[in-house]
Design a protein that fits this description.
There is one protein chain. The chain has 734 residues and is an alpha/beta fold. 65% of the residues lie in helices and 15% in strands. It has a domain of 83 residues. A hairpin with a 4-residue loop joins β10 and β11. α8 packs across α11.
């Protein structure tokens, strides 16, 4: 993994800072200033750059890991509620971007967000992940290291370069064991020990079972012998029981035959009695039905006479039937004449009324003219004179006479018409009476027909009843004959049956009781023997099961012994003198090779190291250690005897070799190293030697970032990053 760019937004003390790794030299110094004072750099935000990388990659930072009680809200800059870290890096020929966010809530709780992207054609495309944990695993796979491996390989805390080489041999061994995670083999060893204890317990249980059932095969032989003897006894008892049951069954059959014969005799006697009752009942019913037959015959004669009488009356009535059509035609003609004369009467009444009005009008004119003395005539409008008045009165009198004659003639015609109308009305009433008489005739005729129909239905019913009665008479006669035949047949069967000997019947019953008691005794004996035999079968089955289980336990013990032997070997193999010692020895060889390669560059091949992982004690035992011996041209001495520049180079080479080893075992390659306060506790010579070592290794690593609070080192490095803090806000000067 090669870093490209780091962007911090409201992260710890940085409001918005960007670190472009592509513009850095292979060795870069990181120093700080607070409020413009280069001497004051503690808390400026230098180490925040490393914390930003750790937060982006793993969602953690060193301060939270070191202090308990802090949660991720700690990374959010004071006065804000959201912190973002954006980290671009190259891995596996691709460029990736991680954006990790922390949102702090006022309640003290918070929410984390994570986005992983890959660059494709100069565009960022998100890599999907349902949960943050899934994306974290994808990031770990991309960079080839988890948080612990990453910090142990690329991060060199204050004093870490010198401290490992300066430790005691046993302390160095513990550090290497921890870095190599050899404690997992201790866990494997404990697991193997626990499995061994489990197998010991299982073998002990199996041995106890085998000891308890060691005589199972002999017991089975004895049980099988007893079973054969008991099976012979059971067969003999079964045979005796079968003979007894057969004899009892024969006696029961004979007794049953006698009982059946006696019951059959009683049954036939009861049948004869029943058949005789059937004969008596059939005769009685035949007498009753015969009486009904006579009654139905007499009623049938009466019904026929009544039906014939009704038919005669209907014939007579039909002969007297009025002519309904003539009545209807006369009524229609009379109706037309009546309507005609009603119109004539109304017309003539109008003429009379008009003439009467005209006469009254002429009389009124005469009266007015007679009273008129002068003026104009009201009818002809000429002046009135005696001559004109007389002339007018004469003319009016003449008109009045004519009108009165017409009125008299019209009244006579009206009177004739009224008389004719009254005559037609009288004829209409007569026709209505004739029609009513016809309706009465029809009702009487229908009543006669209904009575005749009822008489016919009654006659038919009586004929049907008489026929049914005659059928019943026939049936009862046949029933009486059949019942009498059954009496004779049953009596014949009864006469053929022999009388049952009561003494023989009692003797048979007594003998059956004795035989049944003998069979019951045999059944009880057979039941007991059968129960004992089943117990023997169960015991044999149980013994066979135990024998099978014994064989299984023997086979299981062989397998358990094999597994216990394997896990005992694993206990030794996983122990500190087993595979752990092999891993330490191999790692020591690898660290030697890496460190000597670096020392060859740092010292020109004048100094090499040798690591010993075992030491013989004064008592003759072997002790596991991690001794570092320094080999030069004139001597071989422990690291403790070296100081100054040589000691710094050796310690630096060993520490770099340890990080490289850890990275190799994780399947990754170190591209960037972070040194935090690497110059602490070093004098000027040691400081210069370490700077030279950094420069010498510039071809081995892409970037080496040296974080220091010493501002006087700025002139020693060509590439310097200054983290300036003004108030509570930090910025990067690159």
């Amino acid at each position: 993994m090669r870093p490209l760019k780091l962007e911090l937004i409201n992260f710890l003390s940085h409001e918005h800072s960007v670190l472009d790794f592509t513009k850095l030299d292979p060795v870069t110094l990181v120093v700080g200033e607070i409020d413009g004072n280069p001497s004051d750099s503690n808390g400026a935000g230098k180490s925040t750059l490393l914390d930003g990388v750790l937060f982006a990659l793993f969602g953690q930072c060193r301060k939270i890991g070191e202090k308990r009680g802090l949660n991720l809200n700690y990374v959010v800059r004071h006065g804000t509620s959201r912190a973002d870290v954006i980290f671009d890096f190259a891995a596996h020929s691709d460029i990736y971007r991680i954006t990790r966010t922390r949102v702090a809530h006022a309640s003290g709780k918070g929410r984390s967000e994570l986005l992983l992207q890959v660059q494709h054609r100069n565009k960022w495309q998100p890599i999907p992940g349902d949960r943050i944990s899934e994306t974290d695993k994808r990031i770990t796979a991309l960079i080839g290291a988890d948080h612990e491996t990453f910090t142990n390989t690329v991060l060199f805390p204050q004093g870490d370069i010198w401290s490992f080489a300066a430790m005691r041999a046993d302390e160095r061994k513990d550090v290497v064991r921890r870095i190599l995670r050899l404690e997992q083999y201790d866990m494997y060893q404990e697991t193997a020990k626990e499995r061994t204890r489990q197998y010991d317990q299982q073998l002990a249980v199996h041995d106890e079972f085998l000891q308890k059932h060691s005589s199972a095969k002999d017991d089975l032989i004895a049980i099988e012998h007893d079973t054969k003897v008991k099976e012979g006894v059971v067969v003999a008892v079964q045979q005796r029981l079968e003979i007894a049951e057969q004899k009892t069954e024969l006696l029961k059959n004979e007794l049953a035959t006698l009982k059946a014969q006696a019951e059959r005799k009683l049954e036939l006697e009861e049948l004869i009695k029943g058949f005789k009752q059937d004969v008596t009942q059939a005769v009685e019913q035949l007498d009753t039905i015969s009486e009904k037959e006579a009654q139905y015959t007499e009623q049938l004669i009466i019904a026929k006479e009544e039906f014939e009488r009704f038919n005669e009356e209907i014939k007579r009535k039909v002969g007297q039937r009025p002519d309904r059509q003539a009545i209807a035609i006369a009524a229609e003609n009379n109706k037309k004449k009546l309507e005609q004369w009603e119109g004539t009467t109304q017309e003539r009444s109008g003429v009379v009324f008009a003439l009467d009005g005209r006469i009254k009008s002429l009389h009124s004119d005469v009266m007015r003219i007679e009273r008129l003395e002068k003026g104009k005539c009201p009818t002809c409008h000429v002046p009135v004179t005696t001559e004109t008045k007389a002339c007018a009165l004469t003319e009016l009198a003449q008109q009045k006479g004519e009108q009165e004659a017409l009125l008299q003639h019209a009244q006579q015609q009206l009177q004739d018409a009224q008389q004719q109308l009254e005559q037609f009305k009288s004829e209409e009433q007569e026709l209505i009476q004739r029609a009513e008489q016809f309706n009465t005739y029809i009702r009487e005729l229908r009543l006669l027909q209904e009575r005749a129909s009822n008489a016919r239905q009654r006659l038919q019913g009586l004929e049907t009843m008489l026929q049914d009665t005659q059928v019943l008479v026939e049936q009862y006669e046949q029933s009486a004959i059949r019942a009498q035949d059954k009496v004779q047949q049953t009596q014949t069967q009864l006469n053929k049956l022999e009388d049952v000997d009561e003494n023989h019947f009692r003797n048979l019953s007594a003998e059956i009781g004795e035989r049944s008691q003998q069979a019951q005794v045999l059944r009880s004996q057979l039941q007991d023997d059968d129960l004992q035999l089943r117990l023997l079968y169960e015991q044999a089955k149980e013994k066979r099961t135990i024998i099978v289980e014994v064989d299984k336990k023997h086979q299981k013990n062989i397998d358990l012994e094999r597994k216990r032997r394997i896990y005992r070997e694993l206990v030794v193999a996983f122990g500190k003198k087993g595979i752990q010692a092999v891993i330490l020895e191999n790692c020591a060889v690898e660290i030697e090779e890496i460190a000597n390669t670096l020392l060859h560059k740092l010292t020109g091949g004048l100094v090499q190291i040798e690591i010993q992982t075992q030491r013989v004690t004064t008592t003759g035992t072997t002790q596991e250690v991690f001794d570092i011996l320094i080999k030069s041209a004139d001597r071989v001495a422990p690291f403790d005897l070296y100081s100054g520049g040589e000691g710094v180079r050796i310690a630096f080479a060993v520490r770099i070799a340890l990080s490289t080893l850890l990275a190799r075992r994780a399947g990754t390659k170190i591209s960037t190293l972070w040194y935090d306060e690497a110059f602490a506790q070093l004098d000027g010579t040691g400081r210069n030697q370490l700077i030279d070592a950094f420069r010498t290794l510039s071809q081995e690593f892409d970037y080496q970032l040296v974080i220091s609070h010493r501002s006087d080192l700025r002139t020693e490095f060509e590439s310097v990053i200054i983290v300036k803090k003004q108030g509570d806000c930090s910025i990067i000067i690159q």
